[in-house]
Specification:
The structure is a single chain. The chain is an alpha/beta fold. The protein folds into 2 domains: about 220 residues, Rossmann fold; about 70 residues, Alpha-Beta Plaits, CATH 3.30.70.100. The chain has 11 helices and 14 strands. The strands form 3 sheets. A 6-stranded mixed β-sheet has the order 6-7-8-3-9-10, with helices on both faces. Strands 2-1-4-5 form a 4-stranded antiparallel β-sheet, covered by helices on one side. The longest helix is centred in the middle third of the chain and has 16 residues. The chain starts with a strand and ends in a 17-residue tail after the last helix. Bound molecules: adenosine-5'-triphosphate (ATP) and magnesium ion (MG). Magnesium ion binds next to helix 1.
Length: about 325
Amino acid sequence: MTSPHAIEAENLVKHFGETVAVDGVSFVVPEGSVLGLLGPNGAGKTTTVRMMTTLTAPTSGTARVAGHDVLTDPGAVRRSMGLTGQAATVDELLTGRENLRLIGQLYGLDNGYIKRASDDLLERFSLTDAGDRIAKTYSGGMRRRLDLAVSLIATPPVLFLDEPTTGLDPRSRVELWEVLRELVKDGTTLLLTTQYLEEADQLADNIVVIDRGTVIAEGTPLQLKDQSGAAALVVTVSHGHDLERAEALIRPHVREVHVDAGARQLTAPAEGLGHMTRVAGLFDESGIVLDDIGLKRPSLDDVFLHLTGHRAEDTTTEADEELVS
Ligand SMILES: Nc1ncnc2c1ncn2[C@@H]1O[C@H](COP(=O)(O)OP(=O)(O)OP(=O)(O)O)[C@@H](O)[C@H]1O
Ligand SMILES: [Mg+2]
């Protein structure tokens, strides 16, 4: 069974002088699914998106969007997709509503439709009250939301979002995820780049991890978590109960044990549910009371560290609307 691919990247390469920004990136995105292109600063995410959206020509390789080749049929590619770039592109001297109308007209949509779609989008992005103010007066987060609204006016079947939630406060981020989930439910194919492991985990069906211009891993969020090794058995000992005694009790029954005195936690390699139940039984018999016992899967952060040997840089976790300018 072959599902049609809405996006295909085929050995994309991009050189800027001596710099190899993208070094042979290939992947496919099945129709109606979400691909998270995950990587740290400078990994080549934006350059990859720019090649796939006809904004820059590949040094070699090619890509197809909705079956159209970016090299031989760039016009058809552009008609099939929407893009929200990393930098805000709204016209500051127009109101939110006028920005939407301008792009709607460029797509040849009729005015009645534009009006209805604009109302809906302004509402969805919590911009109804600000819709008739010029965008210059918007905060960074509001501009970001307007940017996204604008890229949705023509309801393109394929949507590229380059770090869509950078600069948004946590609440706006969660709201945007909801909007994106709705779009995907209605059949839109989505490619989003992100440095937020959590975001990829939340939204993506598949994740491609790139580092220094090459794909270093790909799979479902679950598969990537599995790749970075086994889950851990984590035991939290109640206050007033002896952590050292707890450690001595568990030690003969696990391969190794790590003690975190501050968190009152013992961590050991997980060996399945049966093993966890036996360990819980030991504590029961000993009279040492636990606050918690459970199995913890590695986070995508752990996965990234495991794959690259360095942490994913994430400089924008603070809720700071002023970050985007
Ligand atoms: N127009 C350009 N001229 C020269 N070098 C460039 C250009 N665009 C990107 N680069 C370089 O290519 C590499 C990849 O950059 P790119 O912007 O694609 O990374 P990114 O993954 O989007 O990073 P970020 O998370 O910071 O947005 C970087 O080393 C960057 O400096
Ligand atoms: Mg970028």
